[in-house]
Amino acid sequence: MSRRKVALITGSTSGIGLGIAKEFASNGYDIGLNGLDNAQDIQEIEHGIKEDFGVQVFSSGADMSKPREIERFAGDAGDALGEVDVLINNAGVQHVSPVEHFPIDKWDLILAVNLSSAFHMSRLLIPSMRNQGFGRIINIASAHGLVASVNKSAYVAAKHGLIGFTKTIALEVAESGITCNAICPGWVETPLVKTQVETLSREKSISQTEVIRNLILERQPTRKFVQVNEIAALALFLASEQASSITGSSYSVDGGWTAH
Fold first, then answer.
1. What is the reported pTM?
2. Whole-angstrom distance, CA of residue 228 vs CA of residue 60
3. Rounded-to-integer distance, Cα 89 and Cα 96, Å
4. Residue 80: phi, psi to the nearest 5?
5. Residue 251 appears among annotated catalytic residues
6. CA angle (27, 31, 36) in 5-degree steps
């Protein structure tokens, strides 16, 4: 009997990452979860996925800004679940500020979590993927990996870097049965975005509805949020055998944002 495939998803206890974890679990993957929620909340999420989908789940509170904790997560997940077939680099943080006022610690944190963690996870898991002749690396980038916005210098830099990293990995592993692609969401209705909406509402002294319509979604011609399940469905396809010739590519799921 063949073993179930294993998917590791960083930043997967809420938002896009959790949606992807549930999509893969519903399709029979064992899951490696990661997030900075408190231990009890992570355990509840782990238990829920096990109960709902009948798969094995390993969870870790590893801080994706710290290489040693990343190494521990990758090693412990492998010990618990077996060889990893799919790596989804999704962990991300955000801070909004003009460059001249951008806090240095926030810049370093965003680059570490949004970009360097993908490097560390990839370097740790590619050797075993090479050995088994199969692997899928999917980097959750952003529309901001393709275009820029004011006051988001660190996030834009990290996401642009992630797309370049995706292309480089794809070339390096092209003959190994491994692919590497990026997904570039626009505005997705997640806890991170909800926090931004609340902040903008306070700063602009306008309602959250006005923020969403006139500031958040003004760049998306569809004028609606991208849904988490749309991102998850694309990730599942990119992880499939049918996507074996798709590598080094970036896929916009942004309601037409980058078509401007």
1. 0.95
2. 22
3. 22
4. -80, -35
5. no
6. 135
8, 125 Cβ separation under 8 angstroms: yes
Torsional class of 133: left (φ above 0), alpha (ψ -120 to 50), beta (otherwise): left
Spatial separation of the C-alpha atoms in residues 86 and 172, rounded to whole Å: 17
Span 191-211, pLDDT tens digits: 778 888 898 899 999 999 999
Model confidence pLDDT, tens digit, residues 121-141: 999 999 999 999 999 999 999
- Say which amino acid occupies 164: G
233 vs 219: CA distance, rounded Å: 23
DSSP state, residue 205? T
Owner of token pair 């979604």: 217
CB 200 within 8 A of CB 151: no
Asked if residues 248 and 170 have their Cβ atoms less than 8 Å apart, the reply is: yes
DSSP state of 31: E
- Give me the catalytic one of 53, 107, 155, 225: 155
Q: Domains in the chain and their CATH numbers?
A: 6-186+227-251 (3.40.50.720), 187-225 (no CATH)
Q: What is the DSSP string of 90-151?
A: -------B-GGG--HHHHHHHHIIIIIHHHHHHHHHHHHHHHHT-EEEEEE--GGGTS--TT
